[in-house]
Each structure stands twice: as C-alpha cells, then as structure tokens.
Amino acid sequence: MSSLKNKIVEIASKYGFDICRFALPKPLDKEIELYRQWISRGYHASMQYLDKNYDKKRNPKEILQNIGSVIVMGHSYRTPFDYNEADNSGYGLISRYAWGDDYHHVLAEKLRKVIAEIKDVKECDCVSYIDTGPVLERAWAVRSGVGWQGKNGNIINVSIGSYFFLCVILTSLEIEPDKPVAEHCGTCKRCIEACPTGAIIEPQVVDARKCLSYWNIPDGIKSNMSNRLFGCDICQEVCPWNNKAVFSDEMLFYPRNGETSLNLTQILELEQECFSKRFKNSPIKRKKLTGLKQIAEIIIETSDKCNY
Fold first, then answer.
1. Best exposed site among 1, 73, 203, 212 by fewest CB in 10 Å?
2. What is the pTM of this model?
3. Catalytic residue among 29, 51, 131, 233
4. 272-279, long-range: CB within 8 Å, 24+ apart, which pairs?
5. What is the pLDDT of residue 216?
6. How are strands ordered across the β-sheet holding 261-263?
7. Is 131 a catalytic residue?
C-alpha cells in the first residue's frame, strides 16, 4: 500500500470511518443498465429525482473532469442499544439510522475535515457525496471492495455487517485501487423471507413502493406495517452478518434520551412547536408531524397484527 493511500486511510479512521477503500473511476456500464431497469419498473416509487443524471451516475468524469480515483468510506451507526420488550405495545419503533442526529449533517462535517487533511498531504480536487448527488454509492462500494451487495440491496462488510453509512469522494489523486470482495450471502434468504411486505422482489432488487422505509405508505401494505413508526430494519435484523457486536464511537448516532421507539399516544397528542423542538436535526423531522401521526394511527389500528 502506498504512503499516500495509507495516509488517507489513517485520516478517514481519525474521523470515525470504519472502512476506506479505493476504486478506479471507470464508467459503471453494467451497473447503470441495472439501475435503468430498476427505474423502468417503477421501483423508485415517486422519487423522481432518481430518474436523472444518468451520464454522471455512469461516468464520474462527468462530475470531476480530472478524476483519478474514487474513495469510498463507511461509517458505522450501530450502537449498544436495542429495542426494549416494552416497545412491543403502544410504541412505534424507530429505524436505527434515525436514533440520533441526521447523518447527512454529522458526516458532512466529517467529510469536510477529511478532505481538508487530504489536501494538506497533497493538493488535489475533491467532490464528496452522502447519498444526495448523482453518484451510485452502492455500486462504487462494491467495486472498491467495501463490501458486497446483499440480497436486501444493502452493502455488507464482513467485519461490521450492514449498519453503516456510505460516503464517496471523487478526487483527482491517482491512488492504487482495491479489489472487490466475494459475495457471502450464499443460499441464505432470511431477509427476503422476513420482509413483511414482500418488498425484496428478487435478490438485490427492492421495490420502494412496498418498502416500509419509504415515506409514503400505500394502502395495500398498511396492514403489514406492524409497529414500525419510522423506517424499517427487519431485513438487516435477520441478517447473520449483523450478529457481530461492533459499535460506533460516534455519540451523535446514539439514541436521543435513550429512545429507540416512541409512545404512539404521545405522538398523536404532539403539537408542531414541540415536534420541531424535539426532533431538531433528526431524520424523523423530514417526515413532518402530519406524516408521523398518520403512521401512528395506522399502527394503532393494526395493533392486533404480529410484531416483527
């Protein structure tokens, strides 16, 4: 490993990134075709912003003309906390990624510092993304060897599982690339079988219209929501690769006030001012109070269903 590559990995680790890998910036020809097929089937639901910028998603040179490498980093958000037994009745579960602060804000600051230190080592151009730009993060994660794409669509790393966020840096630096890793799902179908709405259409293909992590819940799957108030981790919870107890040191991802679920009755009684204050800088705020109340009402109405 070159001294420059070593130094970048060291910088990434300094700011809490558990994984840092590198890839050649070659066009994602096969990957973009699969992505187009996914879009054509309507699996992106109403997220029309995904149906744009195909040239940039295929070829990162369309974003950074003098690109030399793609740096892909993973930051764990797993904590020692879990759902309480008491959460099975009268409470709505929060997806693990939303227990703490919004990862976009937390990681943006970390990325800014990482890039600044990289430029201190060697002057370069850099463009970074945290799932908000025209970059196929998961495709680059696979190509760089961060992990393989599991049957639930998530990237799985052999050391830390799949509870991690992806960040991508396009840089003009030419760095020795890493190799993709082997796929280790084998014949396991736990995620497919556990999904309560059948959102995993086939291995690595998820229909957002059926996924409980999608913000707009169609009438056809409301009866299968169980007590998932915000997001859903079922397909990750059943994955054997997430059995390892590897926790993040980033306290901003830890549950606010130790809460991994919310009292449904309190949500229905919550007023806008209190909602805005309580969920400031939280991913939950994006759903808005009206949306959160709608989901709470659905969970209460279907409370006789089995919990997952």
1. 1
2. 0.94
3. 131
4. none
5. 53
6. 228-230, 91-94, 261-263
7. yes
